[in-house]
Write a structure and sequence with these properties.
By secondary structure, this protein is α/β, with parallel strands linked by helices. The protein has five helices and seven strands.
């Protein structure tokens, strides 16, 4: 079963956390915490286990940090894995697009909406917003600026 073989495959990477998830509560069988620099090795291990990248997003947890959230799944066995990687604001995360080509689009979307750069990405440019946009709409400071403009007319 993948819930047994994935932790075994990840164990040589010395990740911060590899633990069973509460599927009924979270929708994940395994929950993993890794450093951003470990993500290429994590992606390769997941690919070797027959998993694919289901999605990649980020959460702007504070004005100083983000959490990248990678979701992996498998077509043949119900086993969903969430991998969290904390990233300081302004730091780059390594791309995994050379390991999992579908990550290309997801990384571009995260760059576009959060401003997170992925080192080594072959085509890191905006995906949804115009190339000359000066905003990243899912960052906390964008929401704060929008709140200031959303005052009721007098």
């Amino acid at each position: 079963m993948l819930t047994d073989s994935i932790p075994q495959a990840l164990s040589p990477l010395n990740l911060e956390k590899v633990a069973p998830g509460d599927y009924a509560k979270t929708g994940y069988h395994l929950e993993v915490t890794a450093a951003p620099a470990q993500m290429p090795a994590v992606a390769q291990a997941m690919l070797n286990q027959g998993c694919f990248l289901e999605s990649l997003t980020a959460v702007h947890t504070s004005k100083e940090a983000f959490t990248l959230v990678y979701h992996f799944a498998n077509f043949y066995e119900l086993c969903r894995t969430a991998v969290h990687a904390s990233l300081p604001d302004g730091a780059e995360a390594p791309t995994i697009s050379h390991i999992i080509p579908a990550a290309d689009w997801y990384e571009r979307e995260v760059y576009d909406l959060f401003g997170i750069k992925f080192a080594g990405h072959p085509n890191l440019k905006r995906l949804l917003l115009p190339e000359d946009a000066e905003i990243h709409p899912l960052r906390k400071e964008f929401a704060e600026a929008g709140e200031a403009k959303a005052e009721a007319p007098k």
